[in-house]
Amino acid sequence: MTEVQVPRIHRPPIVVLGVQPNDPPFRLVEIAGELAGKAHSVLEVIEIARAVGLDDVDLDDPDVVRWVGGDKFTWTPFWPSRSGRSRHSRHPPPPAPPERRG
Q: Which among 19, 24, 46, 94 is least buried, having the fewest CB atoms inside 10 angstroms?
């Protein structure tokens, strides 16, 4: 197989990792394989890119940005917190069991 026939693996310069459950939730941003910062919004991704010299970043271009665990509109975790209940759950917690008398 020649070099031309070998598929190239392309890694975009910016990788925005999945949402980390915290208060408020955030996403880690890697630039050129190095951790560059923590973003709480899409605007902060742009600010982090500008801080390292990347101006006018097209966040919709998959050759520039790879979004892991969602897209640029995903800023809340998919799974409930470790306690088993999300603060934003629509259902109230189950009632306590009745006391036993004996």
A: 94
What's the rounded Cα separation, in Å, for the pair 45 and 30? Answer: 10
Is the CB of residue 18 less than 8 Å from the CB of residue 26? no
pTM above 0.85, yes or no: no
> Tokens in use for 71?
């897209």
- The answer to whether the CB of 26 falls within 8 A of the CB of 19 is yes
- The pLDDT tens digits for 5-39 are 666 666 789 999 999 999 999 999 999 999 999 99
The backbone torsions φ and ψ at residue 48, rounded to the nearest 5 degrees and listed phi first, read -65, -45
Structure tokens at 38: 């923590």
**Burial class of 51 by CB neighbour count within 10 A (0 to 12, 13 to 18, 19+):** exposed
Residue showing tokens 């640029």: 72
- Give the containing element (helix H, strand E) for 44: helix 42-51
